[in-house]
Fold this protein.
Amino acid sequence: MAHHHHHHVGTSSNLSFEHTDNILIEERLFPPPEDIVKNANITAYMKSKGFDDYEAFYRWSLANRFEFWNDMAKELHWFEPWKSTFEWTDKPFFKWFTDGKFNIAYNCLDRYMGTPIEDKVAFYWEGDDGSSRAYTYKEMYVLTNRVAKVLQNQGVKKGDRVAIYMPMIPEMAASVLACARLGAPHMVVFGGFAASSLRDRMNDCDAKVLITADGGYRGGKVIELKKIADEAVAETPTIEKVFVQRHTGFEVPMAEGRDVYLDVLLNDIPEDTVVPCEPVDSEDMLYILYTSGSTGKPKGVVHVHGGYAVGCYATTKFVFDIKPSDVFWCTADIGWVTGHSYTIYGPMMNAASIVLFEGIPTYPAADRFWSIVEKYKVNIIYTAPTAIRSLMRFGEELPARHDLSSLRILGTVGEPINPEAWMWYRKNIGHNELPIMDTWWQTETGMILISPTPILPLKPGSASRPLPTIEADVVNKDGKPVGPEHGGFLIIRHPWPAQMRTIFGDPDRYKTYWETIPDVYFAGDAATMDKMGYFRIQGRVDDVIKVSGHRLGSMEIESSLVSHPAVAEAAAIGKPDEVKGEHVKVFVILRNGVEPTESLAVELKRHVRTLVGPLATPDELEFVTSLPKTRSGKIMRRVVRARELGEPVGDITTLDV
Ligand code: WTA
């Protein structure tokens, strides 16, 4: 492990994952519906390349990946074409579509103006309380230009970072797209994150302005976004202006000279205002999105305009098989990468009508999802296994009450889907026949990498195969393939267009992705591959916890605990959870003289909630007097977790006992 000594690579436990080889061999194979195969976008592309057979096509795509991606890029608008498709001169850094002049926002909006698409609905907005509004592509274009003008008037220009902390409303989408227009990277923070999380992210990227709202709704409750934002901005010296979109209409304090209502400014901007898209370089930054890793500070994953756009466009087209008349609904919040790639950019570049939902699956009742599918005649729904598992518990009657016949394709993302949930989804939502796209990818990958397209036979609980041009494998820590039906590390062999370019302000941290296992991209997941080449993702091998599909770092939770005066040390782990996939359990060593009481446990859980956000709230807290550590004093969470779950502890040579 000579490559492994960078200080960011957490504990030495990262790659000592013991493969359980505890493999579920899935015999069930569900062939795709014939009419879907016949009409699929991927079928048309295969035919255009002279293939009938997927196997042969996939092999062709590996040998001709640049031809494939050139074809995809040509379907988008470029101000100036790219000179070379791919450059990998400064490994592990690389470039796609070099010297092209491009703007992703142009491809989401401008391109459609003056065509029939301008009158098509871009967003069906569904509020938490059931109120709704529809925005055509033209209306989104107007709104986006107005937001861009507001930002421009404030002096926001290419390269300036704009923080966005908003509910799922059309003004949020317009804000994201307005930043893209200006070439000003957006940095969206999930509305469920607490003030200190927002503050740290804004400070890390020196955000110049913040766009927020007075508040948002989730399940009938108000999220006081402005109040949280105020706390964060108080400790973010780079923020010059706070734009506040009124949504709840509740009175919020407005700081003189700093805060201004966005809706008021927008109204003053003439409807025909156009802020032309900045023709940025393909490799110019589109956004930063913070995500959790093995070490403390969340990392600012950097995505760029050109390759990211091409990757999102192509995967949306082929995986979800979007057709011109389709209504597409990705339930992910914009605060996560899925919201970026598949709630906004991918479907907009495919000119879909998109459902934008502010609320939660169980409010006002547990059939909310299914009533939305019925209301908007959704054709493609893309959600998380955790949502399916939580809705399963309410029984088959709830989906049966709704007309779900509009659906054609189902999708899942964010965590492994267990075969029972997969079968339930197929049976109750997919009328026993619809294909399920179990899509594996990450914030860092920008786009889906391992997933069926609707023409592949499916296995419950398997993300199936790498997409065209993508070469995935399961290897040991030296990079040697472990072969079918053995557990190992999931890796990808060659960069793809939408891959992150770096970690903002920390290129060394980016390098670890390509250096942990020599010369390949190491995803941080364990997986197995079967004899058909179908992948089954087992989960993270690092200290990332997936709570309801949301990515959290153990260290962030531990840091918040240790900031409490009663706490000396803490370890956070993810424990298997029937609904959430994983929940957080923390082990706490108290300071000398502090009594471990029930009320202190409650207080500490609340402390995490306040400092990190509701998602991170530990479900379990245990007071302990010692924790296993390495010789250098790092807590070995892997050992804590193995002990807790009664699993073999594995290699403990570096453990202090
Ligand atoms: C997990 C979410 C199993 C995985 C797009 C990965 C999955 C992490 C799947 C990335 C899937 C994502 N099956 N596991 N279909 N999709 N994961 O960055 O552990 O929030 O490394 O991106 O989610 O989480 P992130």
